[in-house]
Task: structure prediction
Amino acid sequence: EVGSNDFRISDMGGTGDVTSGALLAAVAYNATDNEYLVVWRGSDNVGGLVTGETEIFGQRLDAATGAEVGSNDFRISDMGGTGDANYNVYSAAVAYNAADNECLVVWMGDDNVGGLVDNELEVFGQRLDAATGAEVGSNDFRISEMGGTGNATYTAHDLAVAYNATHNGFVVVWRGDHDAGGLSDNELEIFGELLGADGVTIGPSDVRLSDMGGTGDNPFAAGWPAVAYGGGPDELLVVWTGDDDVDGLVDDETEIFGQRLTGDPT
Result:
């Protein structure tokens, strides 16, 4: 261990308030400024937020000391605006873009804009200036389109993000329930999308990456993905927990699976 033991980073609701809290943290390193950005799902009691209203928050830390830098517990997402506990966020992930000194924060959220309805969970993103934490570009832009728009039956969950240094972009992956390509309801597979540094999708959206149990068979599923970029071979490796029916595997026999992908967005 180095420095302070178990130092506290968030203070959702201050101290001694069990109605506010923080969950599901992720972190990225900013090599330019020697800082970390920590993000999490939190419920707070400031800025008009109400009990049960969860959003994504962030905190910059000095990598040399662990000391907080900049704004304290700054809010990143605004699902459903402010003061409405019907629209919330869940897990978050973050990656650092060294070329532009920015971070991309992504999360699973429930919003009320663009025709979305309550409980229609999709993947959203927000670019941040890594040096200040200030938002850059489009606010809370939508990344996934599970089941289209206006249908809460199909949703996105469990996401991860990686930065593609060769092409200055990102890949976002998630566990999704979709109605395209012959998939049935609750047939959970891993999907992905390539984004430019500006957050705009490159190529096809909602690309299916896993095929646990084939297609049209929902007892076999995938979840909890992770992704890393390999600069040498210009490839991405996506891995996930899966339940498949090949090579003698039986239902509910979960193992780790993977898929190599080209890093070239073209």
Observations:
- The first strand starts at residue 21 and ends at 30.
- The radius of gyration is 19 Å.
